[in-house]
Design a protein that fits this description.
Helix content: 40-55%
Number of strands: 20
Radius of gyration: 29 Å
Number of helices: 31
Bound molecules: nicotinamide-adenine-dinucleotide
Strand order of the largest sheet: 13-12-11-14-15-16-17-18
Shape: globular
Length: 715
């Protein structure tokens, strides 16, 4: 044994060739935590000082190669001063440089996922051989940063500037065929042949057939572009990437700037440029929010895993109602491998549901994501039916019939008699209380909410709503089914609107108030889109549908009359009364025309201004800040109330629910994180400024306490 640590071992395998093996003890994957870097440094020193070693193969003992840095260390690390971050990166880079400078040829055998620091490790060796099923990439921009272990330096020199920009600024995970074609790896093989291939490469180098030193020099030198080519490559891509990433996500463009800056430098100087750029990004609030988001997501996964342990097996399910939502649930379940019965009361519904599933599957086939025979298998695992024939075999039912309490009550009771005693019954209701729906059931313990979002195949969130009588088993089984469908479940307690709609409607309330006070709804949309929302509130209302919004609003007003009941007629009411339901009938706040690709295109409709005139108290221009405050305060305060009322268990659940459920700007981390970043005291002061607008703007007593005590929601 040449070196033996807790994350890395080095031993001689054959003919003077050493193998450095990553195998982080007590973990299912390898990651670059502090310990691993330290051990890599120690192992590299041992290798460097040996005079008998003739080559090095780098391997992993896990299924993946190295999944990246240990992100749990980022929060503390990034909190330190910028100089410390630069120094930290430079120190880590010494380790990678030592590997790159070893006095013999080096090859990485990439057996599985090699991402971020894991792929930067691969780049430090002379050659890379890769399993056909593995993936490589530098996804750091997704965390608001970019590679900091020499990745921007080595990759841009190895595969050229254009590809490097695509890989680094896009943060893509790249398949083996692409990696080979673009020059990021040297060979693609079956997994069990990797080490032999690596040894063979080393022997060829040592026999003088391959010039590994020349390859190495390529990575260590300047980028081979003349000034004109360089200018073209960097400037054009900067504009393109900036347009794609948007100004709220600076890292993709900063990565290009850094590569441009170090293009004319050799390795050690180039790495200094990278380290400085990295530290600058790591100190942004965007990075803090995106890292926080990643950690929150891990937290949700952990919770879901705990639930899954208690779950019943879900081998066959059923959905009641083959409409927009029922059809979506059937498609998603079948696609992810749980066969499903799809029951409706009329054949037309079923035909429509199946047609929608076929359309979505055909798209996957077109895109090469699925083979035609797989498409047939998926379709065959949706069993359309007009009766309860096979319901005795079903483990879980999702009720998705029309949003009418009487109909739902009847359907749920009827279904309860048709399924086994241990089957779990769930409802996809968006507004009706789970406790109310449970009232007439014989086994309310087996019942809970399973709230999907539209379109089901696209939206990641599922709210699992626990009623007073819901058992742990029912929650656990529903969580497990949501996971099996590829969704992120969040368990919430019952209340009108649950988490997501309870928070969304006060936001619409803020919008209605602004328009009433004379704000231009188009300007409000523009400001909120600039703030980071995928669509502004008027546009979102058009997508949700004015009838749905009005109905949900009434439920919310009844549930929380103190702050959500509004006696005045709003612009939303006016749209509804004029049959302007939004996208579903091509007219809402905006008009919708079909573009060349057959997609709805939003166009301005002057008619809207005339229609809402009676409910608007004179047009007025609002500053951006005021629009943001009046929109965001009600949303944030309702999120606080959900936490205080124990609708959600933890701040992370609330914030992730809003990001996954309604597209809350991810780079802002969520509503509670947004309050934290502003400072709870500053937020309370801001809300108090708008106190006249009504109770939607009144902070809770507990929040005032938090402000006084300097407390935060996170950390
Ligand atoms: N559309 C959305 O954006 C959305 C989002 C989340 C949740 N939801 C909820 O999902 C549920 C369904 O909404 P949708 O938009 O899919 O409605 P939809 O009108 O498109 O579909 C309802 C379907 O249920 C069928 N149906 C009616 N009574 C039935 C019965 N007794 N047995 C079987 N099928 C019956 C109808 O024939 C129809 O096909 C509602 O509770 C709604 O609140 C909707």
């Amino acid at each position: 044994m040449i070196y033996e640590g807790k994350a890395i071992t080095v031993k001689e395998i054959e003919g003077g060739i050493a193998q450095l093996n990553f195998d982080l003890q007590g973990e299912s994957v390898n990651k670059f935590n502090r310990l691993t870097i330290e051990e890599l440094g120690a192992a590299a020193d041992k290798l460097k000082s040996s005079d008998s070693i003739k080559g090095l193969v780098v391997t992993s003992a896990k299924d993946s190669f190295i999944v990246g840095a240990d992100i749990t260390e980022f929060t503390d690390l990034f909190a330190g001063p910028e100089e410390d971050l630069v120094a930290n990166n430079l120190k880590a880079n010494e380790v990678f440089n030592t590997i790159e400078d070893l006095p013999f040829p080096t090859v990485t055998a990439i057996n599985g996922m090699a991402l971020g620091g894991g792929f930067e490790m691969c780049l430090a060796t002379d050659y890379r051989v890769m399993d056909a099923k593995a993936k490589v990439g530098l996804p750091e921009v997704k965390l608001g940063i970019f590679p900091g272990f020499g990745g921007t330096v080595r990759l841009s020199r190895l595969i050229g500037v254009d590809y490097a920009i695509e890989w680094i600024s896009g943060g893509t995970e790249n398949r083996a065929d692409k990696a080979l074609k673009e020059g990021a790896v040297d060979a693609v093989l079956e997994g069990d042949k990797l080490v032999a291939a690596a040894v063979d490469l080393i022997e060829q180098c040592n026999a003088g057939k391959l010039d590994y030193k020349a390859r190495r020099e390529e990575k260590q030198g300047k980028i081979k572009l003349n000034p004109m080519e360089s200018m073209m490559a960097f400037e054009i891509s900067k504009a393109f990437v900036a347009g794609k990433a948007g100004k709220n996500y600076p890292a993709p463009v900063e990565a290009i700037k850094v590569m441009q800056k170090h293009a004319s430098l050799t390795r050690d100087k180039a790495i200094e440029v990278e380290a400085k750029g990295f530290a600058k990004m790591a100190k942004t609030n965007v990075a803090a929010c995106l890292v926080g988001l990643f950690l929150n997501d891990q937290e949700l996964k952990k919770k879901a895993k705990q639930w899954e342990k208690e779950a019943n097996d879900v081998k066959l399910t059923a959905v009641l109602g083959a409409g927009i939502m029922g059809g979506g649930v059937a498609y998603q379940s079948a696609l992810k491998g749980t066969p499903i019965l799809m029951k409706d009361i009329n054949q037309d519904g079923i035909t429509l549901g199946l047609k929608e599933a076929k359309k979505l599957l055909a798209k996957r086939v077109d895109k090469g994501k699925m083979k035609p025979d797989q498409m047939a298998d998926v379709l065959n695992s949706i069993t359309p039916t007009l009766n309860y024939g096979d319901f005795k075999n079903v483990d879980l039912v999702v009720e998705a019939v029309v949003e009418n309490p009487k109909v739902k009550d009847a359907v749920l009771r009827e279904t309860e008699d048709m399924v086994r005693e241990d089957a779990i019954l769930t409802s996809n209701t968006s507004t009706i209380s789970i406790n109310t729906l449970a009232k007439n059931l014989k086994r309310p313990e087996n019942f809970c909410g399973m709230h999907f979002f539209n379109p089901v195949h696209m939206m990641p969130l599922v709210e699992v709503i626990r009623g007073e009588k819901t058992s742990d088993k029912a929650v656990a089984t529903t969580v497990a089914y949501a996971k099996a469908m590829g969704k992120t479940p969040i368990v919430v307690n019952d209340c009108p609107g649950f988490l997501v709609n309870r928070v969304l409607f006060p936001y619409f309330g803020g919008f209605a108030g602004l328009v009433r006070d004379g704000a231009d709804f188009q300007k409000v949309d523009k400001v909120m889109e600039k703030f980071g929302w995928p669509m502004g509130p008027a546009y979102l209302l058009d997508v949700v549908g004015m009838d749905t919004a009005k109905h949900a609003n009434e439920v919310m007003a009844e549930g929380f009359p103190d702050r959500m009941k509004d006696e005045n007629k709003s612009a939303i009411d006016v749209m509804f009364e004029n049959d302007r339901y939004g996208q579903k009938n091509d007219k809402g706040f905006y008009k919708y025309e079909t573009d060349k690709k057959g997609k709805p295109k939003k166009v301005v409709d002057e008619e809207t201004y005339k229609l809402i005139e009676p409910v608007v108290q004179g047009r007025k221009d609002f500053e951006e800040d005021e629009i943001i405050a009046r929109m965001m305060i009600p949303l944030c305060l309702e999120t606080v109330r959900c936490l205080e009322d124990n609708i959600v268990e933890a701040p992370a659940d609330a914030d992730m629910g809003l990001i996954y459920g309604i597209g809350f700007p991810p780079f802002r981390g969520g509503a509670l994180r947004y309050i934290d970043d502003m400072g709870v005291d500053t937020f309370v002061e801001l809300a108090d400024k708008y106190a006249d607008l009504g109770p939607l703007y009144h902070p809770t007593e507990k929040l005032r306490e938090m402000a006084k005590n300097g407390e935060k929601f996170f950390g």
